[in-house]
Amino acid sequence: MILRRIARPMLATVFIASGADALRKPTGRAEMAGDFIESSLNALPENVSAAVPHDPELLVRINGAVQVGGGLLLATGKFPRIAALGLAGSLVPTTFAGHPFWQETDPAKRNLQRTQFLKNVSLAGGLLIAAADTEGKPSLAWRGKRKASAATAAVTAALPVGAKAGSSAWDSIVERTHEGASALGEKSEEAAELLRDRAPELAEAARQRSTEWAEKIGDRSAEVAELIGDRAPKVADTAKSLAATAQDKAEAGRRRWRKAVS
């Protein structure tokens, strides 16, 4: 729209000029902002304050660079919403540090500073409007709702024929799902109650079975030990016989080898 192409450079002009002046001559602004910068740094947590530069002139130059860069982006229509938001943020320290009219005792200076303060407030309002301007495009909230509706439609389309939302088949699926969940809940409650009632009986039965198994193992342990004792000599004799047989075969093999060599 032609209006945006005219209004954006007009709004950006003051920031480009002010930022360029801050970059070229930061000393005067740094002296004015010294107390404000010091109090602001003291109000920050120590870990954050340690990471922020403490040199007033450097901070003035950084703020000036933000204003020049944001002003150029806004004037050329490149990322205008982000540029407008950045420029609005740069106005906060500039306004409070450069125009503290409440500290002035001279009526003339107080009026001048108040005028400058209100001018910056007005500029911040215009920048916030520019940051919210979507150029006629749908907002993020509207696009998000549309994406959600499209996803719902895609899921509905993937269902079997006749099982669309609002149809009798769809209502039947929903109703059966609820019935199944309700029945499952009732069955689980019945099973839990039955298990709770039968728990003492099950525990007593398990105790009796474990006692019976222990007694049987104790009764058979003597028999098992006696059986092992009876079979041990036989096993030992068999092992000795096998060892003697293996030794005889080895000796016969050595005799054959010697005869073959000689």
TrEMBL record:
<protein>
    <submittedName>
        <fullName>DoxX family membrane protein</fullName>
    </submittedName>
</protein>
<keyword id="KW-1003">Cell membrane</keyword>
<keyword id="KW-1133">Transmembrane helix</keyword>
<dbReference type="Pfam" id="PF07681">
    <property type="entry name" value="DoxX"/>
</dbReference>
<keyword id="KW-0472">Membrane</keyword>
<dbReference type="InterPro" id="IPR032808">
    <property type="entry name" value="DoxX"/>
</dbReference>
<comment type="similarity">
    <text>Belongs to the DoxX family.</text>
</comment>
<feature type="region of interest" description="Disordered">
    <location>
        <begin position="236"/>
        <end position="262"/>
    </location>
</feature>
<dbReference type="InterPro" id="IPR051907">
    <property type="entry name" value="DoxX-like_oxidoreductase"/>
</dbReference>
<dbReference type="GO" id="GO:0005886">
    <property type="term" value="C:plasma membrane"/>
</dbReference>
<keyword id="KW-0812">Transmembrane</keyword>
